[in-house]
Amino acid sequence: MAKLKLRDSDLCWRCHRSKGTLLHMLYDCYLTQNLWKTIIGFVNKVLGTKFVQNPALCTLGIGVREEGLTVQQTLWCRLALSTGCRIMHVKNCHI
Length: 95
Prior knowledge:
Protein name: Reverse transcriptase zinc-binding domain-containing protein
Helix content: 40-55%
């Protein structure tokens, strides 16, 4: 956004400490970690899975199919993860 002159600074608008790359904004920022921990914990509890929180799973859904889930469970899990990404993208405040 800073390169497009939409923001004055290239720092993360949540923590104002690190460069606001897409990966940082969606996953790495310490202010987003609690939400991902909650989402992964909820998915594991509901589906009986043992997903480990990582950026590939949280931001892209990579690894969901390897858990041996049904088609409906896989779709629900991806919906939960994509909802987390949408919250990170839209919410311009501390989570």
